[in-house]
Structures are given as structure tokens and as C-alpha cells.
Specification:
The protein is of the alpha+beta class. It has a single domain, classed as Alpha-ketoglutarate-dependent dioxygenase AlkB-like (Jelly Rolls, Sandwich). Helix content is about 20%, strand content about 30%. It contains four helices and twelve strands. It binds succinic acid (SIN) and manganese (II) ion.
Length: about 220
Amino acid sequence: MVLMKNYISSDDQASIVNICRDLGIGDGGFYQPGYDGGRKMNLQMMCLGKNWDPDTNMYTELRRSDNTKPPEIHPKFHDIVTKAIQDANDFIRVNGASSDEGRGLPSMSPDICIVNFYSEIGSLGLHQDKSESEESLKKGVPVVSFSIGDAADFSYGETRAVGKADKVILESGDVLIFGGESRLVYHAVTGIDPDTVPKSLREATGMRPGRLNLTFRKY
Ligand code: SIN
Ligand code: MN
């Protein structure tokens, strides 16, 4: 698991906000996902590439609730993801333990991006990302996560025990990568830290209070 602090440039953060806003208001854009029982998730979601269905935990080509097709992953996002994995691998090579030798992250060309928007009261319960193909999970093909806007309290751990989870704050511009042996790490967003968005980003984009998170995956 590699966390790269303040990795995405201010200009790129602003572009990502603007791209997500444009896509978010169109077909397949932001919605509040719910479960068949009626319960709703505590965030807004938009899927790119393939649609993730929270009820079945499966990917589909169309969104079941309104039959919309998810927008494509923007080329700019692909470039940042590719570079982030390379930089994470360079870091592992130089700083990793000797037992890490030869165990860099597999490369990844994403065909899925889940974009979450958390308002100041948004959150996401502890879970694993395991709806991707058996092959992808087995190989430990990484998930790459961008954080933009207000900071989040992020918990992660090896087990479902919330009390045992470690905590880290994810701030605007941070990139978190979990692959290899960490691919199935349990993780949660326990809260959003209000009014922590960089002032320059708020001014450049006029983004509403809250946090944007993009997770890129390979099915
Ligand atoms: C997710 O687990 O899908 C999103 C995590 C985050 O918002 O940082
Ligand atoms: Mn997740």
C-alpha cells in the first residue's frame, strides 16, 4: 500500500473537478445509490467505464436504475494513473524492505473508475474492493485512488474489526495505491473534515463543500 501525499498538481486537481462536474450532470452521472431494501449509501456516485451495482456487487454495462451507460474514463485520468503506479514502484524499489524485492505493483490500465462525492456528512462503511475479476484480484492488480477537496478520515486494516483499523487522513491531491498483498485491504471513510479544501482549488473551481474520490480499477 503506497500513499503519495499531495501528488496531483493543483491544475490537475482543478481539471479533475471540472471534468467530473461535466460528466456528473450528464447521462450516467452522479446519483445516490441505494439497495433494494430501500437503504441509501451516504454519498453520490458516478461510474466510468463499467457500472458497479451496490446491490449485486457486480459490474454491468448499463446502470440498472435508469439504463444509462457509464461515460468513458477521460484520457487525462489514464495518464495520471499510469504515472502514479510508476512512481510508486520507483519508491518501492528504492525504499522497500529487501523482502519487497521483485514485488513491485503490477501495471494497470483501468477499465473502471468509481467516482464518489461525499458531502460534509458523507461516509462509507468498512469493505473490501472485490467485485473485480478473479484474475485481477489474484494478481493483486492495484486500485488507484485520488482524493480531491475536503480531507477524509480513512481507516484501513487486515480484518473486518473496525476497532483494529489504522487511520490516516487523505487530503486533496493525495494518491493512495493498494495492490499486491494489500489488494484486499479493508477500508472505510469514517468522516469528512469540513472546510479543509485548499482555498486555491475552491476558488479555481467553485466546487461545493465536500470531497471527490476517484478509484481506478481493472476488471
Ligand atoms: C472506496 O472505497 O470506494 C472509496 C474510498 C475513498 O473515498 O477514499
Ligand atoms: Mn473501496
